[in-house]
Fold this protein.
Amino acid sequence: MSTITFHQPDGATQVLELEKPERIMQAALKNSVPGIVGECGGQAMCATCHVYVREDYLDALPEIGDDEEEMLEVTASERDPQRSRLGCQIEVGANGLESIEVDVPEEQV
């Protein structure tokens, strides 16, 4: 079973077990994970699903597309040049990425 672990700024942790492949943002919204807004519904147009991917998982991620790169320039919390990604662009449980841990930024909007 695939998992996504969300680490909150206050130290709280939430682990989601996925029954099928799912994008980080979709899983977060479905499970009411605090700090993930997803205003645009996963179209890489709002940056309100910004997460900081933990370093152990960076090599397993797909490359950043042009739309995602552009949105990462306007995140509410500071962008980390290595770890910042949009949760709507990362699918867990597919393409060899069976688990991931992310830090949720302090603010999204």
